[in-house]
Amino acid sequence: MAQKIYTVDAFTEEPFRGNPAGVCILPAPREEQWMQKVAREMSLSETAFLYPKENGFALRWFTPTVEVSLCGHATLASAHVLWETGLLEQKQIARFHTQSGLLTAERFGQEIELNFPAKPVGAAPAPDGLLDALGTTATFVGKNHLDYLVEIEREDPLRSLQPDFRAIAQIPVRGIIVTACSTDPKFDFISRFFAPASGVNEDPATGSSHCALGPYWQAKLGKTQLAAYQASARGGVLKVRVAGARVFLGGKAVTVVRGELAAEALAP
Question: Would you call 89 a catalytic residue per the annotation?
């Protein structure tokens, strides 16, 4: 039986914008080494692998170089494919068993809302070389178990950052979130996300980073519902709703590639 694989642009309603993710729905578990090879071949920031499990689907995410413990856009893309292919009915909630616990996705018209764990940051000293590598100064630096979060004073310098990715890759975290208040009234804040240590210099639209950004900007702005823009070259639009220990991430998705792996690629 042919093994289908998809590319889905997440956190956008336009093809070739947002964040592209690979989605591979398997009939049963596969070897970790094989999944990593497929992710490397797809050469996207993340490829999701899922297979049916009691009361939902098991879900894992791989960059071209490593497995990651939490990924928003590839989860949104996975839910989108499940509904698009009829593996889930439109009104069914998608349930994913992951390294970060049970994650769910629910469809509201064309929009998908993910239920993710909040990942708030605590204030932390900037590690040696971080701000120099970013080429900026900071009004705040914080850290959670995944990433550093750096707030800078204005939006324009954030958009024009040209980081030293080789230097950033030496910092022992998954990635670096840089954020600023938005000057566009449609959005509350903007961000960029750099993760060269995970094989992704700049991620176009990152759901999991907003698990930190949501609580951070909620505390600063006094709002539980936030509109966010990720200012990468492709751009990404997210709705963020903070509810205690959970963060709800809303966005759209569009399939751009439907294909299948050749028989020769299915061997371990």
Answer: no
Q: Please report, for residues 9, 28, 154, 192, the alpha-carbon distance to residue 160 in angstroms, rounded to integers and kept in the order given.
A: 24, 44, 11, 11
Q: Give the model confidence (pLDDT) of 205-219 as tens digits.
A: 999 999 999 999 999
Tokens of 41: 């071949």
Residue 1, pLDDT above cutoff 70: no
Q: Which pLDDT does position 80 carry in this prediction?
A: 98
Same domain membership, residue 73 and residue 161: no
Q: How large is the C-alpha radius of gyration of the chain? A: 18
How far, in Å, CA of 252 to CA of 113, rounded? 9
Structure tokens at 116: 């993710």
CATH number at residue 212: 3.10.310.10
Number of structural domains in the chain: 2
Indicate the pLDDT class of residue 106, thresholds 50, 70 and 90.
very high
Of 31, 32, 41, 46, the catalytic one is 46
Same domain, 59 and 163: no
If you count DSSP H runs as helices and E runs as strands, how many of each does the chain have, helices first?
6, 18
pLDDT of residue 122: 98
